[in-house]
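Appendix B, example 12.
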Amino acid sequence: MATHSIRAKELPRERALAEAAARTLHRRLQRALEVPSKAARIFKDYAVNLYFPANRMSALQRLRCTPPLLLVEYLVYRVDSVTEGAKDVDLDVARNADYDKLHAYKARFESLLRRAHAYNGVVAREIGNGERYVRLENKVTSSRTVDHADVLRLAELRPSDVRLLHGMTFALLGRPADTALLKLLWPVEVLADIGNDLTDYHKDVAGGQFNTYDAFVKLYGPAAPERLRTEIARYEQMFLDELAEFPRARQAELRALGTRRYRPLTAVIPEALPAHPTPAERP
């Protein structure tokens, strides 16, 4: 009888442990599948739909560039696991294991690109910008303070991963970088990044993730939509000013490629959520 009683008490505990293990495994599988899925989407949105046609690449050239670009975008998303795990620690202050891991990962990443003949000045610059983004985002999320300039700087630096892909295409094809085209697409990439944050606003707020629009809401309250519209108009004007420097025969083509990338995402600004505590502030 005593044995049966003990066993009966153990069953709920064993069931709870099994359910917890199943939930953990499910979350890990979700994360494992999420990274390649995101990388494939970014590759399609930027490389396939923007950079390849903007550079008028042939089918063979696109085929040649596709595997290394997909691989690199996947590896870039792996860095998120470092910054996500260290978002409550300022990596510039605490020289911890995450700091060392970030440096080691960067060195291996550069070595891989050099061996693949996918390294040039543009790639080097965007790797540096990617590190600046990681450090600034980490500083903002660990201190939970941000100002207008930091918000815009994050929006401008965050597309470094897709600019890296663009730079790689020139190296892989043995071409010099098209500086005018890079400059033209810079505000397009910023606008698309802001647009992504508008799309993900509610999800990012619920998950405690940094979001450009959410930062504007915290800074400006009800005036946030109008303040963000002003910045969107400013970046769009930058795009149009650069576009005017291109031959007239190319302007319509490039304008269509650029506006198709960002305008559907920035057309509507969602209603701001009421003031909300950060995950660290919640009881």
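The chain is about 80% helix and 0% strand. Residues 91 and 100 are 9 Å apart (CA to CA).
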